[in-house]
Amino acid sequence: MRPVSKKADQQRDLFRERLDNILDTRHELCRLAGLINWEYFEEAFGNWIPR
């Protein structure tokens, strides 16, 4: 098996970057997402399966 080239590793690392490192956390929608009670929605819709 051939070793993976360093360039290929760097390209894959792009997709492994954490989303919070990519997004601007000062943006209005990011700040709004921090204010939403996500547990409420998880409990209310967590087991819902669309048909």
| Major sheet description | none
The overall number of domains is 1
Helix content: 55-70%
Task: Give the rounded overall mean pLDDT.
Answer: 78
Total DSSP E strands: 0
Low-pLDDT windows of residues = none
Distance between the termini: 45 Å
Strand % is under 5%
Please provide the ordered H/E string of secondary-structure elements.
Answer: HHHH
Gyration radius from CA atoms, angstroms: 18 Å
Overall spatial form: flat
- Main structural class: mainly alpha
Number of helices: 4
In short:
The protein has 51 residues and is an all-alpha fold.
Overview of the structural elements:
The chain has helices spanning 6-16, 19-22, 28-35, 38-45. The model has no long low-confidence stretch (mean pLDDT 78). It has 51 residues and is mostly helical. The protein has one domain (15-51).
Write the layout of secondary structure elements.
Layout: H1 6-16, H2 19-22, H3 28-35, H4 38-45
Features:
61% helix; flat; mainly alpha; 4 helices; 51 residues
